[in-house]
Design brief:
It catalyses: cytidine(34) in tRNA(Ile2) + L-lysine + ATP = lysidine(34) in tRNA(Ile2) + AMP + diphosphate + H(+). Helices cover 38% and strands 21% of the residues. The chain is an alpha+beta fold. 29% of the residues are buried. It folds into three domains: 203 residues, HUPs (Rossmann fold, 3-Layer(aba) Sandwich); 79 residues, Chorismate Mutase Domain, subunit A (Up-down Bundle); 111 residues, no CATH class.
Length: 433
Amino acid sequence: MHDLNDFPAQALPDGLSHARHIEAALSGGLDSVVLLHLLSRLAGRLNIKLTAVHVHHGLQDEADGWLEFCRDYCARLAVPLRWQKVDVVSDGLGIEAAARRARYRVFGETEADVLAAAHHADDQVETFMLAALRGGGLRALSAMPAVRPLNRRTLLWRPLLPYGRAELEAYAERHKLAFVCDPSNESGDYLRNWLRNDGLPQWRARLPQLDQHILSGIGLLQDELAVLEETAAADEAAVQSGGLFDAARWRTLPPARRRQVLRRLLAGHGVSAGKAALHDFERILMNLGQGGAEWKFPQQTVYAAAGRLYFLPPDWQAQCRAAPQTGRLKELGGGWQLRRAAYGLPDAALEQTVRIRTAESGDLLHTSGGRKKPKQILQEAGVPPFARPLWPIVADAENRCLAVTGIRADSRMAVADGLLPCWEPLMRFVPPR
């Protein structure tokens, strides 16, 4: 363990030197009270903006009092406090996991560069033991990293990981810091509490160096995880084609590396997939051929088509649908763009009145290979089946098809270096050639 006198005094650790705003998670308990006190001294020396955030879970009768304590403590430190009350809904999760999900949702709304959490060395040991008891893999056994992304703009920082609870208690006593106590921490109903209050004390009595050995092992595991992540990141980049997952390239990897790529890919799109779901992805993708598949998750729908994966939010169709309209081609606005293409509509067509609509049964477009339906043209262009029904076409005033947007113009009108109307929300579904 380290002494809290070693807490960063003159500079932030590597990777955090850019931070101009730190927000500290404040529950009112010992750990977070000590953290905010330490950060208030650091922020003053470094001229960094410091705020705090409190999440009111509403799970204890004392919760309102904890909020008032945090308000008073922040006022005394002159630290602005952001707080939010949440509804903890289990949705099949345990109450602890559901509360954590709600808490981190609030944390993710911060405007700070860094969100500081008060996890300490004892928490790290407990996290490792819980992972081992639950059959976790390398990521779970690596416990909590000191720094990781919270979201795309904010890093999560755990500056107290080198220090044990005893060091925090001594610091609080030395500085006469008051804090609140959560009675649920004494309940043996939760496995973590049982470990903290019953299991680990017995192991420590038998093995006095238990914590040091576990923390040393976690350090080694985190190094190994970093190497694994580097390999998986390189594999993920190698199986991308035009920015899209390419199943044919992915299948060339060994089985364990295939699963690592899938895990990274899913996690990168906010999809949490357990072992069974991961194996289901792998099984289907290994045998997909040129067919399609679909997986629905709360925040994403994943489509597989022609050996590629597409991650789309639940309302993607509403976002991608082009509203029917009639007007001059040059006046199309919103998500419409006019691009130069090898062959497209002549510039004179800009003054032409056109109709924007989806394909109809009688639509035909003249091409060098004969007349084709828009559906066939989309298929030949590699547009996935799930996107084709939304695809807009450009028709003339007599409702004759002039162009399949972003793909091809009618060859009877097409000129070299002509204009091709493109509905931007759907263009991501056109594979690069």
